[in-house]
Specification:
The chain contains 1 helix and 11 strands; from the N terminus they run E-E-E-E-E-E-E-E-E-E-E-H. It has one domain. The protein has a 9-stranded antiparallel beta sheet with strand order 3-4-5-6-7-8-9-10-11.
Length: about 200
Amino acid sequence: MKHITVALATVALELVAAPALATSPHTVDPAGMTPTLNPDYAPWTCVLAGTGITCTGYEDFSYTNEGTDFQCNGQVAYVTGTQRSKFVRWHDLEGRALKTSIQINFTADRLTLSPTGAGAAVFLSGDWHKHYVYPVPGDLTQRVLTETGSAEKLRVPGRGVTYRDSGTVTYVPSQEYETPSGMHGVHDRFSGADLEALICDGLT
């Protein structure tokens, strides 16, 4: 819908249209994007923006004393916390991905060995940005991931921070989270540290 600013210019009530007109953005079907958009961030909103298509999605959830997929001496570890993420991906007019921005935050997840949250606890937090570029538009095998921020930090009461992953990491295409092509900062995960073992050590 066009919105026209009307001004009273003369006693004769002459109507003058403002020079700028605002129009609703043209939406695009998210299903037409390449590669397929991550369903975890649905519902997606995709709009024509300049010379391409921009898609935005969100993920926001919480969990209370939820069992994890690892154990400490035969005991399941449980976690309580929240996570929030914003996902923006830019495409060409054919819907092929050009770059992606994901902002992820989870603060002070509380881990225990009790389904009620009782007993000793350790705290895991993270706040980081993931940036993908597609040298070949839409081609997942060629995309390059760079992570920046405080990706993960484990705090054990009475001991302080026992695990830290912060700074910048860029990965080799098709080897994300496995093979860095370059990094700066402190990255315990690439120095042989075992996060799960450190969590268990803090809990037991």
